[in-house]
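Supplementary Note 2. Why include the ligand at all?

Several targets in our set were suspected to adopt different conformations when bound, so apo predictions alone were not considered sufficient. For every target with a known small-molecule partner we therefore ran a joint prediction. The input for adenosine-5'-diphosphate is given below.
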Amino acid sequence: MNIGSSIVKENSSSSNYENTISSILIKTISDGIIAVDLDWKIIYMNPAAVNLLDLSADEAIGKKLWDYIETSLPRISMQDQKMFPCKIASNGEEIECSITPTDSNIYLIAIRKNLSKPSDVERKYQRIIELSAEGIIIINPMGEIAYANPSFRSLVGYEYLKGKLFRTILSDESIYIFQEVFLEARSEKKQITNIEIELLHRNREIIPVELSLSPFIEDEKFSYMICSLHDLRDRKKLEEELRKSEKLKTEFMNIAAHELKSPITPVKGYLELIISDEEASERIKNWAKISLRNAERLLLLINDILDIARLESDTMRFNMKQISIANLLKEIVEDVKQSIEDKQLDFIVEIPEDLPSIIGDPDRLSQVFKNLITNAIKFTDRGSITLSAKKNKNNIEIYVRDTGIGIPKGELNNIFKKFYQVDMKEKRIAEGTGLGLYICKEIVEKHNGSIHVESFPGEGSTFIITLPTSIISS
Ligand code: ADP
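The joint prediction is reproduced in C-alpha cell form.
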C-alpha cells in the first residue's frame, strides 16, 4: 500500500510536480513518517520510520502504533498536533513524536531520535565529573557559576550554586588573583594550572585550593571557563607539621652536638697529657694515641652536625671580609702537605700570585678546601693531588684534582646530598659521615659561588669551586 500516493491524490488539484516532489520527499527524509487512521492503526510507514523502529512495513501495517511506540503521557489526542517524548518499544531508545492531522481522517506521526539526549560518551564524562574528588565548575563569561559538581558544592558548603558569582565565594585576596588568571586564560586562549587561591566556605572558613582553568572556545569565541579546584588543606597541614618537625630536629641536633662536644674537650686534653707524660709506658701511650684519634674523629662529626644545624636554622655566622685567595690557598697547602706526603702521593700546586681578591669568610672557605683535599687523600692510593686556581672573567676557579677511585656518573649529583656516601660494594675503604660535601656546597653558595665535580671511575675526580671576585680587585 502506498499511502504517500493516496495522500497526494487528495491534492490532485496541485500540480503533478508537487505530487512527485512530496512523494520523493516523504521517502527520502531522515524523519520517520507513520500514517495512522482514527484507531491509531498504522496504514503507512516511510523507509526512515521502518529503519528507526527496526521492523518491516508489512509487519506493522494494520497494527496499532502503540505496539511499537511507548509514551509516558496518559492520553494523546489526535487533535493535539504537538511534539511529545516517546520510546521505541523494542529497545527503549528515546525518540520524539509529533502528530499532524490531515483533512482526510489520516494522521501523520513524524518520529525522530531525541537529539538533545546526551550520547553514551557524554554520559560517561558526566559521570566522571559527578564522581570526581576534585571540585569542577563551569563559569560563564559573566563570572557566574553555570555548573558545579558535587565535590565543589561540598567544598564550599552550598547546595545550589548555579548563577552565583564565583568571586563571592573567594577570599578578598583571591578575587584579584582569580580575575587576573581568568582574563589571561580567556584572552590568550590558554590553559593555566596550579594557581593557589582561597575559597570562602559558607561557614566563612578559608579553604586553600589549587586552581587550574581552561577556556572553552567555540567558533573562535570564548564561551565559558572550565575550572578544577584541588583542596590543599591536607597538604598544608602536612607541610606545617613537616616544618615543625624539621625545626625540632635541627634544635635537637644543635643541643645534642653541644652536649657531646663539652666532655670531649677535657678527654682530649687528658689523652694528650698521657701521650706527653714521660712516666707513662709505651703501651699506655699507644692506647692513648688510639683513643685520641677516635676522640678527634668524634669531634669532627660533632662539628659537622653543629654546622648542619647552623646552616639549616640559618644561624651560621660568616665573618665576610676581603681576602687574598692566593694567600689562603698557600696556608692550606702548608696545613695539608704532611698528610699527602704520609700517603706517598705527589702534591702539585698551581696558584698564580696575581689572583684577584674575593669577599669571604677565610675560616669557612679554608674548611671547604681542606674538606675537599681530605677527601682526595682519602680516596686516592697512588698518583697525585693537585690544587690549582685561575681567574675566569669575574670569577676565580679553584680546582682540587685527584687520581683516585673516581665517582660513578650516576652518583655525581648525589654526593652533595646530606649523609650521602657512594656505595663501595666491597668493604668500606674510607670512613666518613657523608656530611662534608653538603656543608661545602652550602658554604660556597653562601659566598654566591658554586661547586661541581667531574669524575671518571678508576681515573680520579676534580672538584671545581667558582667564587665571584670582589669589586675592589687587588
Ligand atoms: P664523607 O664524610 O663520607 O667523605 P662527603 O660528603 O665528604 O662525606 O663525601 C660524600 C661521598 O662522596 C663520599 O663518601 C665518597 O663516596 C664520595 N667522594 C667525595 N670525594 C671523593 C673523591 N675525591 N673521590 C671519590 N669519591 C669521593
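The pocket of adenosine-5'-diphosphate is lined by residues 375-376, 379, 402, 404-405, 407, 415, 420-422, 432-438, 461 (CB under 6 Å). DSSP finds twelve helices and 18 strands in the chain. Comparable summaries for the other entries are listed in the accompanying table.
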